[in-house]
Each structure stands twice: as C-alpha cells, then as structure tokens.
Design a protein that fits this description.
globular, Glutaredoxin, 203 residues, binds glutathione, Glutathione S-transferase Yfyf (Class Pi), Chain A, domain 2, 2 domains, alpha+beta
Length: 203
C-alpha cells in the first residue's frame, strides 16, 4: 500500500494524478497547511523540508519500505514500478524527457515564482508578476506548438502530460491572456475528460 501525503497545489496534484492513472492502490492523507500539518515531528521525519508531496510505499524496492518526496521523483518512481507513462519507443521517450524537464525546471518554477511574488514576498510588485507571467506564457506557447497535430506531448500519454496538467489548469488565465493557444486548450480538455484525471482534479 502507498500512502500519499498531499495538499491541492500543482506539486501535490502531480503526485496524485500519476497515482490515480497508475491503478496502484493508495491512501490519500490531505495536509492542512494552515494547521501546520507539514511541520509536525511525524511529517518532518518523512521530509525534513516540511513540504509535500511525499509517498511512503510499504513495498518499495527489495520489498522494503520507501519514503520519497519531490513530485517528479514520485512520478518517475510510479512509472518504474508500473511500467507505464514512459514510451517504449526511444524517440518518444527522449521527447517525453524533454517536455518533462521543461515542466520540472521552467514551468513549475516560474508558476511557483508567480505565486510567491503574489502572496508571500515581502514587497508586492505587479510588474514583476507580469514579467514572470509573460515568461510562463512562452513555455506554454512551446507546448501549444508541440501539441499541433498530436494528442499528447510525446504522442502517447506520458509523465510529461501528467506533470504539465496541474500547472496548465491552474494557470489557465495566463494561457487565455497570452493566447490563442488552441492546441494546448484542446489538450487540457482531453486531459480533463480522462476518468483518473477527473477523480484527482475534479471541477
Ligand atoms: N519541488 C518540490 C516542491 C514541493 C513544495 O514546495 N511543496 C509546497 C507546496 S507546493 C509545500 O509543501 N509547502 C509547505 C508550506 O508551505 O509550508 C516538488 O516538486 O514536490
């Protein structure tokens, strides 16, 4: 059994999505940040960074328990455990890795920076928020171009799609405000229609 420690942010949703799509059995434990669930000694023992998502798999490699943080690491682990979401074909696999890394290093970071600048930073600056929104829109435009004539980023559903979806759904205003990005919008609708995606991220 896998225990998922989760909160409904794009990082948490990424881990939830891959687990829902995988068909693996798991239990979801939702953390309440306002109550400080992420700072308890029990949770800190799972992740000293006091951040979710975290999974604990009681049947990890070698049959031993495994505790893992970092949403993309969790996605890669679930993919390896199930043999899903990584294309067999070498070309598709290389493309999947490129788009997965774009999400991991650029899209998630830029989206997170917009959140920090809007809500957490000591000085608020609409101009800085607009600067990072424009940067994020460039990444989304690249995804839109890749999705022209394709159903998924690497032609078949892969980790790249599951990683991107929470950021694309959560930043829909950036996509619409800097569009049109018709291929990306159709992809969002296609993803939303998948039963596992709808279970993980309803509405
Ligand atoms: N790079 C990490 C980021 C994890 C992260 O920053 N999680 C945040 C929420 S998105 C968190 O748990 N923050 C705890 C807090 O705000 O106290 C990942 O991909 O999992």
């Amino acid at each position: 059994m896998i225990d998922l420690y989760y909160a409904p942010t794009s990082n948490g949703q990424r881990a939830l999505l891959v687990l829902e799509e995988s068909g693996l059995e798991f239990r979801r434990h939702t953390l309440d940040f306002a109550k400080g669930d992420q700072k308890t000694p029990e949770f800190t023992a799972l992740n000293p960074l006091q951040a979710m998502p975290v999974i604990r798999d009681d049947k990890g490699p070698g049959g031993k328990p495994l505790v893992l943080s970092q949403s993309i690491a969790i996605m890669l682990y679930v993919a390896e455990k199930t043999g899903k979401f990584v294309p067999q074909d070498a070309l598709r696999r290389a493309q999947m890795q490129q788009w997965l890394m774009l999400v991991a290093s650029d899209i998630a970071m830029t989206s997170g920076t917009i959140f920090q600048l809007s809500f957490a930073a000591p000085e608020k600056s609409p101009a800085n928020v607009a600067f990072f929104e424009k940067r994020l829109a460039r990444y989304f435009a690249a995804c839109d171009a890749q999705l022209a004539g394709r159903e998924y980023l690497a032609d078949e559903l892969s980790l790249a799609d599951l990683a991107l979806y929470p950021n694309a759904k959560g930043r829909r205003a950036v996509i619409d405000g800097h569009g049109p990005m018709p291929n990306l919008v159709r992809w969002i609708e296609r993803m939303a229609a998948r039963p596992a995606v709808a279970r993980a991220m309803p509405g």
